[in-house]
Amino acid sequence: MTAEAKTEHVTSDAVLRVEGLDAGYREVVVSGVDFSSNAGEIVVIVGVNGAGKSTILKAIMGEATVHAGHVFHRGEEITAQSADLLAQRGIGYVPQLNDVFPGLSVTENLRMGGYLLPRHLVHERTERCLERFPQLRAKHGSSAHKLSGGERKQLALARALMTEPTLILLDEPTSNLSPNVVEELLFVLVPALAAEGRSIVIVEQAVEAALSIADRACLVGNGRMLRSGDAKEMLEVVTSHGLLAESIGADVASPDPSVP
Ligand SMILES: Nc1ncnc2c1ncn2[C@@H]1O[C@H](COP(=O)(O)OP(=O)(O)O)[C@@H](O)[C@H]1O
Ligand SMILES: [Mg+2]
What we know:
Mean pLDDT: 89
Number of helices: 11
Low-confidence stretches: 1-11, 253-260
Radius of gyration: 19 Å
Helix content: 40-55%
Shape: globular
Order of helices and strands: HEEEHEEHEHHHHEHEHEEHH
Number of strands: 10
Bound molecules: adenosine-5'-diphosphate, magnesium ion
Oligomer: single chain
Structural class: alpha/beta
């Protein structure tokens, strides 16, 4: 491989770097997505319903179509790779829906999360997950569909943690959870995962809470990435403009010279 060809695939040492991503299905849903996340950082993606937040995560995970742009993990291109390869690289993903196998027990769900691991590690990591989430240990034999919303989300996260990922993508982990569970998840669990040196990319509807724990933020709307930058700056903008995300999109987007 020539030096030139090599540098094409090597960018910075960010854990995740998304460059000029146009993502969608048959059609592009969201375009011009650029952001990166380093070890120990939390990046939040915000925007109204249907803006394409989940699509961005799915495109990173090879589940939605990448129409343009590149995704790099630790400097190596991972655009449109399979979920298995991404899991082996240390990328964990907790989707918005279908995040656990409802008919399987807690322990079986965890084992499924470790299906790519050697057998001895599956046992060790299952134990570690049950240690981290005592509520799950208490219900280790119960079917996932019998868990409360908060326990189910813990299980989804624990399942993703089985591979000890260095990058975790979380799609609206707090939706339909009670306020105290939301608080625990956003203010305790997610920061703890980042403090362990993991890079976290989170899509959240609890915009202010998510921005307050994040290092960086991306705002998507009107079919594109409107803005990205420091989360605290974005929080100030959001607080002063009110929380209606639609108007946030309209108000805080950098002026687009192509729009009269
Ligand atoms: N599998 C799919 N095929 C075609 N269009 C889809 C699919 N999933 C989502 N969409 C469309 O893509 C757009 C963005 O959806 P999504 O990424 O789920 O938004 P968000 O997560 O921001 O609410 C929506 O218009 C939605 O209808
Ligand atoms: Mg979504």
